[in-house]
Amino acid sequence: MADIAHGSWHPALGARPATNDEAVEVTRAVLAQAPQLLPLYAHRFIPAGRHTPGHPVLSVWGTDIICYGHDLADYIDREFSDVDEDAPWAPQASVPFWKDFLG
């Protein structure tokens, strides 16, 4: 929430409210409806719930959200062992809300 409170905003959240306090309130309400993220390691997460198999592991640091693996197995390989840097990389987010942040 610190990023939001200091002026950061993502277009997926809609129009930014007039004040930072309102922006934080709106963000909290939106996040309450989003699929929860299960922590894996440090700031790496995977969406919880049904219908999420194969979803990429996400690195979430404030409003910076990027993919860190095609799925859990790929993430473990990339994070904890040597991976061919030339290997194909085209993760596809499948969970509503979070895929909006991945572009």
What does this structure look like?
This protein has 103 residues and is of the alpha+beta class. It has 2 domains: 1-33, no CATH class; 36-103, no CATH class. It has helices spanning 2-5, 20-33, 72-80, and strands spanning 37-41, 44-47, 57-61, 64-69.
Biggest sheet descriptor: 4 strands, antiparallel
Could you say which structural class the secondary elements and strand pairing correspond to?
alpha+beta
Helix content: 25-40%
Summed up, the domain count is: 2
Poorly predicted segments: none
Question: What's the gist of this structure?
Answer:
With 103 residues, the chain is an alpha+beta fold. 26% of the residues lie in helices and 19% in strands.
Layout of helices and strands, plus pairs?
Layout: H1 2-5, H2 20-33, E1 37-41, E2 44-47, E3 57-61, E4 64-69, H3 72-80
Antiparallel strand pairs: 1-2, 2-3, 3-4
Using brief descriptors, characterize the structure shown.
103 residues; single chain; 3 helices; alpha+beta
